[in-house]
Amino acid sequence: MTRRRITNRLAHYGFRKVFESINQHGIKRGVSTMGLDGFIQHCARLSAGTGAVTGLGGTVSLLVGLPFDVINNITQQFRVTLAVIYDRRGSYEVGFDELMSIVAVSLGVEAGLMMTRSLLENIAERVLVRMGAKAGGRLIPIAGAFIGATTNYLFIKSIGASVKALPLHKPQDI
After folding, report:
1. Beta-strand (E) ranges in 54-165?
2. Low-confidence residues in the chain, pLDDT < 70
3. What is the rounded CA–CA span in Å between residue 133 and residue 172?
4. Radius of gyration from C-alpha coordinates of the chain
5. Using CA atoms, how far apart are residues 89 and 115, in angstroms rounded to an integer?
6. pTM for the whole thing?
């Protein structure tokens, strides 16, 4: 599959499927129990787990595990973003378009008020580029596990810091 085709599929099908699979009430419970930073730490560890598995066996595990790793990273990215929104607003029910706008801004993609096909594609491109930047190190068996875990962990922690830095207001306050 070409990079463009992967980006399109992720943008038009993957993001919505991941969003719909997330239990937003569970995120509320997690933040209420662990606190925001504890929840972000938890999500980063979950992400590090698939990074470690993906890099453990070198090329074979990277090829087999990469799709799962990408989906898990996107899931954890969305969970962290929803957690910050809940922490700031006290509301845990967020729509897909609003989430994607916030995700876009946290990744440095300019987001307008309307969700467009190109915005979703830009988000997908940015996510894949950020995740793929260190994928080469995962080709080294065993050492790749450490590289994959560290890369994923830092990716989710940086997403948490980016979203926490945004001025998130209640929609009626804007």
Report:
1. none
2. 1-6, 12, 110-117, 128-138, 169-174
3. 38
4. 16
5. 22
6. 0.84
